[in-house]
## 1
Amino acid sequence: MIRRATPADATTLAAFNAAMALETEGKTLDPATVAAGVLGLFERPERGFYLVCEEAGQILGSLMITYEWSDWRDADFWWLQSVYVRPEARRQGVFARLYRAVEAQARAAGACGLRLYVEQDNERARGTYLSLGMSDGHYRMMEQGF
């Protein structure tokens, strides 16, 4: 079952975020900060929402959607972020189900497209995204952290 996450899912979502940061970037996140960040999205729904894939009462995977306004297109891009699937549930279509649900919701809401970040060397994830209809963008991301 794919559903919107609720604040009752916050502990699981925060744990997923911490696991993803450790797995993909070798970063250990501060648990209190991550918990506050997850709850912050529920407190400010204009920022976005989480979707979860649940089976037999267990959340197998999740992702977060945030919005980016495009004045060129007079519509929002939906950004897929904080994508995580439990290791034991990977390669079983969990992400594909989440992605298809997001795609349908974004189209129904009038979004102009979907975007996500992928680690430069994560060819497995890139292959998954390509298989679902995404393509390599022509932009390179720049950032400055604070």
Note: The first strand starts at residue 2 and ends at 4.
## 2
Amino acid sequence: MAIQRRKKGKHSNFGEVVDLFCGVGALSHGLKCAGLKIVAGYDTDARCRYAFEKNNDATFYTRDVAKLTAKEIKNHFSGNAPSILAGCAPCQPFSTYKQRYDEDPSWDLVAKFAKLAVKANPDFVTMENVPALMKYKNGIVFKQFCNSLRKAGYQVEWTVAKCEEFGIPQKRRRLVVIASKAGNLKPLRPSHKNFVSVCKAIGKLPQLEAGESSSKDPLHIAAFLSNLNLKRIKASTPGGTWRDWPKGLRSPCHRRVTGKTYSGVYARMTWDDPSPTMTTQCYGYGNGRFGHPEQNRAISLREAAIFQSFPRRYEFLPVNEKISFTEVGRWIGNAVPVKLAKAIGKTIIKAC
């Protein structure tokens, strides 16, 4: 199939994107920043509509991708620009935090994504997921995904991206697959030689106390800490562990032999390194190395978003709407780092 080249003109674009499992639009936003036009996003979480549409100038559809048809996808493409199907199938089934894969049927969504891609036949397909997908069921799911695209005439390139090599202030590993009908595709390449530190990313944000929010940015809000956890974080040093605390502050589970290896919780980040991997509970001091390097609190939701390379003013909720740490934390933790998505978009554009 011949790829439609970009038309010249003020309102031209390098390609049109339909984003499956779009969430609040992180993948879409990175692709948009690269120069692609987002035409639609699909997700089961209707609460993501505001953020997706507000930041990406595209229509959000509350829909289960498992019930989506190829015809619906194809109807979004104008035919005047390269067509791109993008998505990040839910990665929880393949996460190293999850031990019983077979209890979660959502891994089938990877296969469903491949089937939709083959039937919709866009010019490009891209999927982002956790590297553990390559090992799940001895790699069968991942191999079938790639092979189904190859059999449909796509050149398939994949890489395990180190996010800090793409200007993202976070240590995170993501599996990126890009497939092209054009045959001109190059593998995704790092864009930054030097990493972005925690200090450079959030060092100039207004100071907060635990439980406090910024008057200028509602998302710059830190979770409340109990008196015990306040004592713990005051006893914590950047890069240190709970082993540095007086014994009276240690959790009972850490005093047991089975808990002595979990040193990466109740800990502060360091100013000079990228942040640890953001999770859906990254706003909680006890959930990982999510303590602020200097202030006596966990990182704020805005800081977590910045570590995921969302733009500083990315809007997640309408003004004055109450913020739920659980909800927004899930959106942020599950997001594709925006700058990684931008690099994916640039790779696609070069192949056009």
Note: The first strand starts at residue 16 and ends at 20.
## 3
Amino acid sequence: MEYIKIRFGNDLDPLECSFRRSIDEIFRPRPVSPMFLSSERAWSPQMDIYETSEEIIVLAEIAGVDKDDLEVEINSKAVRISGCRSELPRTGNATFRLAEIQYGHFERILFLPAPIDTEVVSSSYTNGFLQIRLVKLPPEISHRIPISDE
């Protein structure tokens, strides 16, 4: 069984990610024809996050991305998924009528709806879907403290 690389860290700064995402959206080229495509431009794969009472599941649609080109980082509050989809060879004399498949680098940072246990994480990559299962931390238990008279 092969494993997907998962790195742990606390450097997923929400303000920096939001700013970078805004800048990327402003300057992202919107090609109409494959001749305008740049292999270096970023794209954003579709993702789902859903949860049960015990875990949070992240599902990423990244068909055509080699597992060795994927990177997953987690901390207790967020998941960062990044990678690269290489462009397939094209026929030199073909005339494209539609070109929607995006290639190049991608990165998504997903902030989780509940804190997770970073020690209990599993992932799988099947048929173009990356699934990451994250176990939720139990809710903090609060204790009532009696107030004494002095």
Note: The chain has one domain: 6-28+40-87+100-136.
## 4
Amino acid sequence: MPDYSQLKAKFGERCVLGAPAAGFTTYKAGGAAEALAEPCSPEEFSWLAAWCRANNAPLTVLGGGSNVLVSDKGLPGVTALTGRLSGVEARGAVITAQAGAPWDLVARLSAEKGLAGLEKTSGIPGSVGGAVRMNAGAFGQETFDRLKAVEALDPEGRPVRLEKKDIPHGYRSTQGLERLIIISASFEFTPGEPGVLLQDRSCVLASREVKQPLDLPSAGSVFKRPPGDYASRLIDAAGLKGLRVGGAAVSAKHAGFIVNAGGATAADIYALIGEVKARVKAASGVELELEQILLGEF
């Protein structure tokens, strides 16, 4: 294990050793981060990237901790949270948001300012950085629809700028961003009527409230949408709503979600993911593809 005394000296109370993943992921499950740090500027992220490289310590960067499952064995090295990088600025048709800003803030602000194109992504949990990294989306819209450019740091901590055209992307996926630390992203919109956009936003939020298990810890949709179908429909058709492994359960409200129904371990959730995949394959012949990212050793 690296000597984290320099890290503690740099970040003070913003560095905690052995912080359980329940405190920084939406599943509220998983082992501890060897060291958890909260940089509050691009310069601190750059310093941290260089320190990790010099000390041969793995660096994991997380935003809201949604869409990930952390192993019960924990995360080696440093886990850096982007939550203190949360600035959002609107200028004309462009909104620039730092990586740790809540994604829904961008969706709300764009609708309020009559900027069309991301209003249907309202209510997506997590951060701007995570949304860009995964090309998050909902109801027919996705992050890259309006993405203009990304400001990031390379593994050595040096700043890089990528235009949208420089980033290969597809449904819930990007290429090349996994090796970078996203610092901020800018989005360019077309004009819309604020009243209409806010109404669309309200409808999306109401639909989420009705259809999704927002009252229990989860990490959003577990599986990607198979071509021409929906993972939730296939899981429901296989009779798997309510299926449990330990404290993990397939949501009775929305079959596409696995929830922490109380005391679930990462192993419970991982085992349930495997069981759902196997049963759906047996029932329909469809191989579900995981949307969520596994962190640590499984």
Note: DSSP finds seven helices and 21 strands in the chain.
